[in-house]
Structures are given as structure tokens and as C-alpha cells.
Amino acid sequence: DQVEFIHDFLLDKLTFEKQPVSIAIHTTCSSMKMHLEEKLYTVAALCADKVIVPENVSCCGWAGDRGFFYPELNRSALASLKHGIGDATEGYSNSRTCEIGLSINSGVTYKSLVYLVDRASERKFLS
Questions:
Q1: What's the domain range around 63?
Q2: What total of structural domains would you count in the chain?
Q3: CB contact burial 16-30 (16+ within 10 A = b; e otherwise)
Q4: Which of 82, 83, 84, 102 has the alpha carbon at shortest distance from 92?
Q5: Dist. CA 7–CA 76, nearest whole Å
Q6: Pairing of strands 121-123, 14-16
Q7: Can you tell me the distance from the alpha carbon of 51 to that of 93, in angstroms, rounded to the nearest whole number?
Q8: Residue 25 included in any domain
Q9: 3-class SS at 50?
Q10: Is the Cβ–Cβ distance between 26 and 81 less than 8 Å?
Q11: What would the pLDDT profile of 3-50 be if each residue is shown by its tens digit?
Q12: Nearest to 54 by CA among 18, 15, 91, 10
């Protein structure tokens, strides 16, 4: 998982500059099963001034490719998302299909957390 890799192998090799943004993050079902919620939050908090984890949103309902064929699953699972993201202007997760559904149902573009890490960090130079 990219979040686990960034957390476990890159944090000590990067310097971070928090971006002046309010972001929403979404932990995918597979990441929850791997207990990566805290790692996702930790990485996001290094990158952004404000990190929002919407309440009452667990599974995005996309279910692999099912959201393409049954969008009502995704819409139902994310019914409270738009309210839950508050003033977030950007959204981040670690699954492209989840990010599609999150974007459709929130009005905020969700993308991979890797993009935010790239924007907010630089490689540390060893002396």
C-alpha cells in the first residue's frame, strides 16, 4: 500500500512543508482491514494545515467496479459525505475507483495522497 510505504520508508527521507489547505481524507476498506487509518492521517497531517476525516463515512460503496454499473450503491454509501467534509477544498485517498466516487458525491476532487506528498515534500539531503 502506498500510504504504508510512504509512512514506513519515506518520512525520514523527506522534509515537509504544510500546504495552506483544508483537506478531507478517506481510508479505503482495504486500508481499514490493514489498520492503516493512523498512518494515512499522519502522512496527511504532515502535508496540510487542516485534515478532515468525515464522520459516518466508512466504505465508499464503489465495491471494485460495481460503482460503474450501480452508482446508487456509491451514492447511498456517501450520502453524508458532502456535509462531512466541511470546508475541505481537496480530497485524498489511496484508491482510484474510490476517488472517482468520492469526487462525484462530494463536489471536491479526490486524488491519490501521493500527489499531496509530492507537493508538500522535498528530499532530505544527507551531509
A1: 21-120
A2: 1
A3: eeeeebbbbbbbbee
A4: 102
A5: 32
A6: antiparallel
A7: 12
A8: yes
A9: strand
A10: no
A11: 999 999 999 999 999 999 999 999 999 999 999 999 999 999 999 999
A12: 91
